[in-house]
Amino acid sequence: MAAILFLLFLFFIFPFTSPTTITIPLSSSTKHPSSSDPSKILNNLASLSLSRAHHLKSPKTKFSLIKTPLYSRSYGGYSMSLSFGTPPQKVQFIMDTGSSLVWFPCTSRYLCADCNFPNTDITKLDKFIPKLSSSSKLVGCKNPKCAWIFGSNVQSQCLHCDPNSQNCTDQACPPYVVQYGLGSTAGRLLVESLDFPNKTVTDFVVGCSLLSTRQPEGIAGFGRAPESLPLQLGLKKFSYCLISRQFDDTPVSSDLILDMGPISGETQGVSYTPFLKNPVGSNVAFQEYYYVMLRKIIVGDRHVKVPYSFLVPGSDGNGGTIVDSGATFTFMEGLVFDLVAKEFEKQMGNYSVATDVQKLTGLRPCFNISGENSVLVPELIFHFKGGAKMQLPLSNYFAFVDLDVVCLTIVSDNGATQGGRSGGGPAIILGNFQQQNFYIEYDLENDRFGFKKQSCA
């Protein structure tokens, strides 16, 4: 914390110089410890998914079409490139629908603690250099955009001075600190130009981060708060199709499509379910999540009877289901997960449970399938409000640890507390591993979530 406060002090004295469809390639992001052992890789991803879930459940602080590629990263996320500044500087970002601030590693002084990931050299990461951009400006304390992050009360903290004084300058917006499931970042807010082919967006609010922990790349927040990329661009819809991942940094990409034009009808073959009204709860961060109504979980031919209080978000922000591109494995509250896991164990009773592998991977249940010519695995289907059914391919919910063992790729806390809850916030978080090879659509104009099976390669 002392390091953060020291760097925040530096922020105050550090000088800054002042089409309708966009498609952006997505690549999977975040590194895991280098290892050829699948159990270690899965254990790392399970831990990261749980850390992400804990943050989302208890968060702290805080033209018409554009196409851009998304690339998968070995730690479980998907990254994209954006260009800011005049002239433009290209920076890498993780696409995250579970948060809203857009920020990049900023200045040559950028530091990242605990970022010694394999294949990641902090000294060679793309960093935005404000003094090289003629359009870079600090956000003023009285600028309404400062209140996006700090709330309307921030203006009461702004210093007042005689406007006739030659020394009277606009006080800068306070430094921000944002915490994620995997780490944190701290910096100052800028307004900058966001540059797309044939389109430039001016006065875009972006975070200039000088210090991060376990967050070497920038994050592009796609949440529902005003500082998010979709709201700042005025998007009517955005969509993506995530390539099937092998927990590596593959050069193959899929596309993220940003749609600014009016939405005419439904996308062919897509099933839709409405976004729910966000609960206010005790934490304002719940308001930036994408809540959907999951009505049923089907394992094989059995309806898993999940208590209603877990499926519907309460006014306190507890319960319900959110969609999160920043999480790897889907998270379920203890009681929900136990019901689902026990149903898989019951229907796969012909296979022995690999308890040793469960300890190594942090996943359960795991089944020993050695010597089997074929394996019968129950289907996993999510039924949403409105009749939309997400029937998951087997590779989206089971992973091979080796040729002899498979594990369910859904995570939960160890054991449930009283009432089956291990904490507040969303009870189910639909991660990107379960979204692989689906066309995923966030129809913001019509306030609905859509999906259909589709090869994303």
TrEMBL record:
Q: Which residues form the signal peptide?
A: 1-19
- This chain belongs to the protein called Peptidase A1 domain-containing protein
Q: Which UniProt keywords apply?
A: Aspartyl protease, Glycoprotein, Hydrolase, Protease, Signal
- GO-annotated biological processes: proteolysis
Active-site residues (renumbered): 96, 324
Any GO MF annotation of the entry: aspartic-type endopeptidase activity
Give the UniProt family note: Belongs to the peptidase A1 family.
> Taxonomy-wise, where does this protein's organism fall, top ranks first?
Eukaryota, Viridiplantae, Streptophyta, Embryophyta, Tracheophyta
Give the species.
Jatropha curcas (Barbados nut)
Q: Which GO terms describe its cellular component?
A: extracellular region
What PANTHER family does this protein map onto? OS07G0603500 PROTEIN-RELATED, PEPTIDASE A1 DOMAIN-CONTAINING PROTEIN
Coiled-coil-forming residues are none
Q: Which PROSITE patterns match?
A: PEPTIDASE_A1
Domain named Peptidase A1 is located at 78-452
Record flagged with keyword Ion transport: no
The answer, when asked if Nucleus is one of the entry's keywords, is no
Q: InterPro entries annotated for this entry?
A: Aspartic_peptidase_A1 (IPR001461), Pepsin-like_plant (IPR034161), PEPTIDASE_A1 (IPR033121), Peptidase_aspartic_dom_sf (IPR021109), Plant_Aspart_Prot_A1 (IPR051708), TAXi_C (IPR032799), TAXi_N (IPR032861)
